[in-house]
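Quick one, tokens below. Sequence please?
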């Protein structure tokens, strides 16, 4: 007597004697998990929708970023006594990209005689904290005003790769909205 194989879709629970159109989806360390053709097609459609949404969000952000008046650092008039805020990518970089932040701060302080430089890389103490924890202080500083409703920060310095950082893009958008100059380093 020959053995009959019965395949069960892990997603919808349907059974089949025929493996045609089915795919091994993974395993649970004891047996293969199968997915039927219908569930596989639904999954692919869901993934495509997610990718379409991600692409739409990226395109929207790119349009917003393109609309901001970002000045290249070689065209910006750095003045002695100004207050600067460094913004750039951190997550996913070796040592939170502190080297790039520190080099920028050093140049701003020594060569350009900045009065104050906010370097968020110096604030990273606990790498287990989440994104929102580390965004509170920078957004508060960007939104600080003097008595005459002038912003305290003169310019946001955008490090290379800032467009790929959710935190940096958020800081740039807020700064743009409150009238702070954006300078691409």
């Amino acid at each position: 007597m020959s053995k009959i194989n019965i395949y069960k879709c892990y997603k919808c629970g349907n059974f089949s004697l025929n493996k045609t159109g089915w795919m091994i989806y993974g395993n649970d360390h004891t047996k293969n998990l199968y997915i039927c053709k219908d569930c596989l097609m639904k999954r692919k459609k869901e993934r495509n929708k997610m990718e379409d949404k991600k692409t739409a969000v990226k395109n929207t952000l790119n349009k917003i970023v393109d609309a901001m008046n970002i000045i290249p650092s070689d065209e910006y008039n750095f003045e002695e006594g100004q207050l600067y805020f460094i913004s750039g990518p951190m997550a996913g970089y070796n040592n939170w990209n502190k080297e790039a932040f520190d080099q920028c701060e050093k140049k701003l302080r020594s060569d350009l005689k900045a009065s104050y430089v906010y370097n968020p890389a110096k604030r990273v103490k606990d790498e287990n904290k989440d994104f929102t924890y580390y965004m509170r202080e920078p957004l508060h500083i960007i939104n600080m005003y003097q008595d005459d409703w002038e912003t305290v920060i003169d310019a946001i310095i955008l490090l290379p790769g800032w467009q790929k950082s959710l935190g940096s893009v958020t800081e740039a958008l807020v700064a743009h909205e409150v009238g702070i100059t954006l300078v691409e380093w």
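The CA atoms of residues 10 and 35 lie 6 Å apart. The chain has four helices and nine strands.
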